[in-house]
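Open question from group meeting: does this chain pack into something compact, or does most of it stay loose? Before anyone orders reagents, we agreed to write out a predicted structure and look at it together. Recording both the input and the output here so the notebook holds the full record.
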Amino acid sequence: MSIGLRKTAFTAVMLTAGFFFLFPFFWMISASLKTETEVFDFPIRWIPEHWNAVKNYSAVWIGSPFGLYYWNSIKVAVCTMAMSVAFSSMAAYGFTKVRFKGRDAIFLLLLGMYMIPQQAILVPQFILYRWIGLYDTHIGLILLNCFSVLGTFLLRQFFLSVNDEFIESARMDGAGHVRIFLSIMLPLVKPALATYAILRFIWTWNDYQNPLIFLSNDKLFTLQLGIQSFGNENGQYYSLMMAAAVSAIVPLFIVFIAGQKQVIEGISAGGVKG
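Structure tokens returned:
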């Protein structure tokens, strides 16, 4: 098979796979714009015959506390992202550029903790949170995810690629660890920081398990619990459920489009430095 024919076949396969991946997404958007009777028309009518978008989205945003759930999710996701990036980058710097006794052993112990399934420690976490008063609070939910072994490991790999001569030069000029970290190291690993920040935002935004266990007040519900609550009342109306789902993924699209350049740069840099 010639190279041109092979590329054509590969492109056709990828286009087919892309269509199957995007099909549910386009169906969801189309269904959110239709009347309920048109949702399951076959063959599928992608452009609605009777537009019902205003009524569907009004039912989601005005007929339920969807705005409150949205605000709660934004608050939890942004705070978790900021704290997790800060703590993970500081830990990564300490495990790569600060020499102290037992550094590598502590890092291996930290990596070992990543092998423990999160579900295995849910009960002790729940008991601890009830005991110290963090249960049913947003700060408790934020603290759950602001310390990340994966984030520390990811950023450590990028810090390792920074030449120590930068640090030695800064020390000769009298800079301490704080100044070296803020003024030299962070700008050099900016693509990695952006990549991890976007991933952490997406993981926190989509998190369903932790809010389900650690929140009970419906005024504190995040969007994932809000959609479940909305589905309990309107689950029989697929057009409304699809309108809620489309509304829920808008911030993820905005974050991805805004940061896709940094993500690609971070992944490319990680692949080269491997």
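Observations to bring back to the group:
The CA atoms of residues 134 and 140 lie 5 Å apart.
The radius of gyration is 23 Å.
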